[in-house]
Design goal:
InterPro entries: Aliph_Amidase/BUP, C-N_Hydrolase, C-N_Hydrolase_sf
Pfam families: CN_hydrolase (PF00795)
Number of domains: 1
Organism: Bionectria ochroleuca (Gliocladium roseum)
Structural class: alpha/beta
Keywords: Hydrolase
Bound molecules: 4-methylsulfanyl-2-ureido-butyric acid
Protein name: CN hydrolase domain-containing protein
Order of helices and strands: EHEHEHEEEHEEHEHEEEEEEHH
């Protein structure tokens, strides 16, 4: 069977005042727990190493830049000084990880090179000891200018990051399931997007707000994706940004708003997993961070759109399940056999502004 044991590694809050080391220690503890439960792949949230800093207007550049990890062609994220111990720990346990981070990218190693900032995720292979694929968040939510109201929950991703420029590259993970290529057979020059072994799982990454947009999921679906990984930080109450109460006389209470945000979270990940006949691992940072509530909703979804495992707390929690990737085949061969059933001649509008 093409089975792979995966874990959603939900994180509880990480406060603005907390040093990186605290988060690393907690994340490494989750890795240890996963390893002792024979897990192969551990999925962490968006911007996992720090507080969700885009909720703050941060005029102090030193503080702002402190949330980012430096990356250059010669310095991949797993070597970046702040977070290197986390990747080294995953490698020592032979674990693969998906992890979100704030990327400060210098396209060359010269000190004069310009820096570009992205909201990114890396798929790191603990067996190969390297990043197999990087993803940069395409759908940045929020605004450029901060809301003036004191105490407002900000969402300044459009201010702090550039939109991702890597598209939606699906990739194959070697040596992950039966029938997969063995590590010794992996040719380092083979692009990750190309088939390696017949059985290698096909994986795609999304980040938070991306999960609300079917275009990303379908791009992966068209590449035969079997497993979509998505970390997020979703605020539990932000009436000016999220929710359906624009024309309602009576604004939603905090409780109602959180319930609706959780409902939409689940609606997006279950429907898109079903419509692309893939599993998905969806992982939040949860709880009260810097005085602002984040939803949990961490869940693992099967290709029929059913939630098969979910978090019970708003704290650090590992949700473990074994996936049989063969379960993706029925949907891909029947209802969502794209080659037979898609009607491209009717989709022109999708590529217009
Ligand atoms: N981090 C992120 O993308 N959050 C968005 C909410 C933005 S509006 C408050 C999300 O889609 O969950």
């Amino acid at each position: 069977p093409r089975t792979i044991r995966v874990a959603a590694a939900q994180l509880g809050p990480i406060q603005r005042s907390e040093p990186r080391q605290n988060a690393l220690t907690r994340m490494c503890a989750l890795l240890d727990k996963a390893a002792s439960d024979s897990v192969r792949l551990v999925v962490f949230p968006e911007l996992a190493f720090t507080t969700f800093f885009p909720r703050h207007y941060i005029p102090d550049n030193k503080e702002l830049h402190g949330y980012f990890e430096l990356e250059t062609p010669a310095l991949p994220i797993n070597e970046s000084p702040n977070v290197k111990p986390f990747f080294a720990h995953a490698e020592s346990l032979g674990l693969d990880v998906y992890v979100g981070y704030a990327e400060a990218w210098k396209h060359d190693d010269g000190s004069q090179a310009e820096t570009t900032y992205y909201n990114s995720a890396a798929y790191f292979s603990g067996r190969l000891g390297k990043v197999l694929q990087k993803y940069r968040k395409v759908h940045l939510p929020g605004v450029v200018e901060p809301f003036p109201e004191p105490g407002a929950t900000q969402q300044l991703e459009k201010r702090y990051f550039k939109n991702g420029d890597l598209g939606f590259p699906a990739f194959r993970v070697p040596d992950a399931v039966e029938g997969s290529l063995k590590l010794s057979e992996v040719n380092n020059n083979t692009p990750a997007t190309e088939a390696r072994g017949k059985g290698d799982p096909i994986v795609g990454m999304l980040i938070c707000n991306d999960r609300r947009w079917p275009e990303g999921w379908r791009s992966y679906g068209l590449q035969g994706v079997e497993l979509v990984l998505c970390g997020y930080n979703t605020t539990a109450y932000a009436p000016q940004l999220l929710g359906s109460d624009l024309h309602q006389q009576q604004p939603l209470t905090r409780e109602e708003a959180e319930k609706e945000i959780l409902y939409h979270n689940r609606l997006c990940v279950t429907s898109n997993s079903y419509m692309n006949s893939c599993f998905s691992v969806n992982v939040g940072k949860a709880g009260n961070e810097d005085g602002h509530d984040l939803i949990s909703g961490t869940c693992i979804v099967d290709p029929k759109g059913y939630v098969i495992a979910e978090a019970k707390t708003k704290e650090d929690e590992l949700v473990v399940v074994e996936l049989d990737l063969a379960a993706c085949q029925a949907g891909k061969a029947k209802t969502f056999d794209f080659g037979r059933h898609r009607r491209l001649e009717s989709y022109g509008l999708l590529l217009e502004r």
